């Protein structure tokens, strides 16, 4: 999607990430996350507590996630909740769960540990974003109203990108490519998307249709702020 490419490479995001990682940065992944109040999907929109890096066999383990609000995120529509300071202790022991019970593909979690009183929910206006380290524990409750966000994963060229092998992941999803956002790649560890995609693609799942309706709104807001 050319639109997703443009958002992920937005200069405001890149300038902030340069404060985290310095001049040389790559993007490894872009995903749309949707909460849907449909009775058919609402019970599957919970995101179990987890750490992003537990799902990736990157070498070294280094990753930061931008969570960009496409629609307003309020306390009423299941904001992402974070456990402050959890990134300082490395990887926690996750337990495997049934991935068929979720719409986000997560297959292991930290829900067996009670962190509820320590979690901090983060609300945002459309167009705002958060950044969290790949070891930060986070998750969200099942959706009770529609909301949409975009996740963009950043790291540096010295990281060898690998995806953990799981039974239900297709060959296409296993392929790891990246985009050099800024600076230079002196390592050449990872294959790269050399040109931005042209045009748009249809949502893979019907539940993402809501997301594609709101993305142009963020594009317009971005242009007004430049």
Can you describe this structure?
The structure is a single chain. With 226 residues, the chain is of the alpha+beta class. Helix content is 17%, strand content 22%. The chain is built from four helices and eleven strands, in the order H-H-E-E-E-E-E-E-E-E-E-E-H-E-H. The chain has helices at residues 2-8, 11-21, 171-174, 209-225; strands spanning 25-35, 47-50, 64-69, 81-82, 95-96, 108-109, 120-121, 129-133, 138-140, 147-155, 179-182. A five-stranded antiparallel sheet has the order 8-3-10-1-11. The longest helix is centred in the C-terminal third of the chain and has 17 residues, at 209-225. It is globular and about 45 Å long.
Structural topology:
Blueprint: H1 2-8, H2 11-21, E1 25-35, E2 47-50, E3 64-69, E4 81-82, E5 95-96, E6 108-109, E7 120-121, E8 129-133, E9 138-140, E10 147-155, H3 171-174, E11 179-182, H4 209-225
Antiparallel strand pairs: 1-10, 1-11, 2-9, 3-8, 3-10, 4-7, 4-9, 5-6
């Amino acid at each position: 999607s050319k639109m997703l490419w443009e958002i992920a490479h937005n200069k405001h995001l890149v300038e902030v990430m340069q404060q985290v990682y310095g001049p040389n940065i790559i993007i490894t992944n872009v995903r749309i996350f949707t909460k849907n109040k449909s009775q058919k999907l609402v019970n599957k929109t919970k995101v179990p507590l987890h750490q992003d890096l537990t799902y990736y066999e990157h070498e070294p383990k280094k990753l930061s996630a931008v969570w960009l609000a496409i629609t307003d995120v309020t306390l009423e529509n299941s904001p992402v909740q974070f456990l402050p300071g959890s990134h300082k202790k490395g990887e926690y022991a996750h337990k495997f769960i049934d991935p068929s019970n979720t719409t986000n593909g997560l297959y292991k979690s930290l829900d067996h540990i009670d962190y509820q009183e320590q979690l901090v929910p983060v609300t945002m206006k459309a167009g705002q974003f958060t950044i969290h380290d790949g070891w930060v524990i986070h998750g969200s409750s099942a959706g009770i109203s529609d909301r949409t966000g975009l996740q963009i994963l950043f790291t540096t060229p010295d990281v060898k990108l690998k995806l953990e092998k799981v039974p239900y992941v297709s060959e296409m999803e296993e392929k790891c490519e990246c985009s050099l956002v800024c600076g230079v790649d002196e390592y050449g560890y990872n294959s790269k998307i050399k040109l931005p995609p042209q045009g748009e693609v249809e949502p893979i799942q019907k539940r993402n249709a809501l997301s594609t309706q709101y993305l142009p709104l963020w594009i317009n807001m971005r242009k007004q702020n430049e």
